[in-house]
């Protein structure tokens, strides 16, 4: 079969090759998936560069997110061949979704909810489970609270904006330009603040008419160090990721001053039962129309290196999904 394979460490266009690889066979507890669409994320760029924590040994096929149909199942897997599924691939074993077929642990995939096509499904699971884990499980968000989403036009940011709105929060998105601000408002944000030469926190407070209750931060760096000062008493700062290149260095005084909690978030480690419950909750929000497809670009598989370059250069608004 054909697959994109990373054969070195560097820019995606320099290290990716479209090659023939051996067909996949599922081991116990695993599933082989015929790939219909594959979500693209910054971790795929970082894996090409060789500095993502779960980068497998060379050579490997990246691609964390997938939508497709079950082609084969391993021992102990009770899932029908031909079922439409979405979820997280076994990219960490080198068999990600940027290929004609990929491998996944059976516990990391779910049936595609009614209302999502293959494109929407491929970009859905990781961003929305991350948003749910952060806002609901770790942040304890309540209707009427004020939520600030950094990187609000990116993959996890768009999911957090929509989920926050669906759960009754007032949402302000923080973005890098006016086009991304318009996109964030279209997703339901009350307002969007564009990063500029001036501090962001005072403008966030102005947009909300007061302090924030939660900050959802997949960006990190100087932006996070600025926006933490927009939180009010009993605020929760949710550490999601570091798209800026580094985690923030937050002054403990800022946390103590407002009784703020600094909360680490990762969409991993949940039990099968917990993920089934999240899948059901998110599926209902999709069916009711409160979560909608935020995929804005659908490059073909042959265009993967260029698509990753656009993502690395922060030129993507919304979510990119490769389609076959």
Note the overall shape.
globular
Radius of gyration: 19 Å
Enumerate the spans where pLDDT stays under 50 for 5 or more consecutive residues: none
Order of helices and strands: EHEEHEEEEHHEHEHEHEHEHEHEHE
Counting copies of identical and different chains, the oligomeric state is: single chain
* Percent of residues in β-strands: 25-35%
Query: What is the CATH superfamily classification of the largest domain?
Result: Medium-chain alcohol dehydrogenases, catalytic domain
Number of strands: 15
The CATH C-level name of the largest domain is Alpha Beta
- Helix/strand-derived class? alpha/beta
What percent of the residues sit in helical stretches (DSSP H or I)?
25-40%
Beginning-to-end CA distance, first to last residue: 14 Å
Summed up, the domain count is 2
What value does the average pLDDT take?
95
The fold-level CATH name of the largest domain is Quinone Oxidoreductase, Chain A, domain 1
- The CATH architecture of the largest domain would be Alpha-Beta Complex
Count of individual helical segments = 11
How would you characterize this protein structure?
The chain is of the alpha/beta class and 324 residues long. It has two domains: 2-124 and 293-323, Alpha-Beta Complex (Quinone Oxidoreductase, Chain A, domain 1); 126-264, 3-Layer(aba) Sandwich (Rossmann fold). The chain has helices spanning 12-15, 42-49, 118-122, 125-138, 155-166, 178-186, 201-208, 221-227, 252-257, 272-287, 304-312; strands spanning 2-6, 16-20, 30-39, 65-73, 84-88, 101-105, 109-111, 146-150, 170-175, 191-194, 212-217, 231-239, 261-264, 295-297, 319-323. The strands form three sheets. Strands 3, 4, 5, 6, 7, 14 and 15 form a seven-stranded mixed beta sheet that branches. The protein has a six-stranded parallel beta sheet with strand order 10-9-8-11-12-13, with helices on both faces. Strands 1-2 form a two-stranded antiparallel sheet. Helix 4 crosses helix 5. The protein is globular. The two termini are 14 Å apart.
């Amino acid at each position: 079969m054909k697959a994109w394979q990373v054969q070195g460490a560097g820019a995606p266009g320099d290290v990716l090759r479209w090659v023939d690889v051996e067909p996949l066979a599922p081991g116990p507890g695993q599933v082989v998936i015929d790939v219909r669409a594959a979500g693209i994320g910054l971790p795929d760029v970082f894996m090409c560069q060789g500095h993502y924590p779960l980068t497998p040994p060379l050579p490997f096929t990246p691609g964390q997110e997938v939508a497709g149909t079950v082609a084969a199942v391993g021992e102990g897997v009770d899932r029908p061949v031909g079922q439409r599924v979405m979820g997280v691939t076994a990219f960490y074993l080198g068999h990600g979704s940027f290929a004609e077929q990929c491998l996944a642990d059976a516990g990391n995939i779910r049936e595609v909810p009614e209302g999502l096509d293959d494109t929407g499904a491929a970009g859905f699971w990781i961003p929305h489970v991350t948003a749910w884990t952060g806002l609901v499980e770790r942040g304890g968000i309540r209707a009427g609270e004020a939520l600030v989403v950094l990187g609000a036009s990116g993959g996890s940011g768009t999911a957090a904006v929509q989920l926050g709105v669906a759960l009754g929060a007032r949402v302000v998105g923080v973005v890098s330009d006016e086009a991304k601000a318009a996109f964030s408002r279209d997703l339901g944000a009350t307002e969007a603040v564009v990063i500029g030469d001036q501090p962001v926190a005072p403008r966030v407070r102005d947009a909300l008419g007061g302090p924030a209750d939660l900050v959802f931060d997949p960006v990190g760096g100087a932006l996070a160090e600025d926006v933490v000062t927009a939180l009010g008493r009993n605020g929760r700062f949710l550490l999601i990721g570091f798209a800026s290149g580094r985690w923030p260095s937050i002054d403990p005084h800022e946390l103590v001053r407002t009784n703020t909690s600094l909360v680490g978030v990762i969409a991993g480690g949940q039990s099968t039962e917990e993920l089934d419950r999240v899948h059901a909750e998110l599926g209902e929000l999709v069916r009711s129309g409160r979560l909608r497809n935020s995929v804005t670009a659908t490059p073909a598989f042959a265009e993967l290196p260029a698509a990753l370059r656009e993502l690395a250069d922060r030129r993507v608004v919304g979510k990119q999904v490769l389609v076959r």
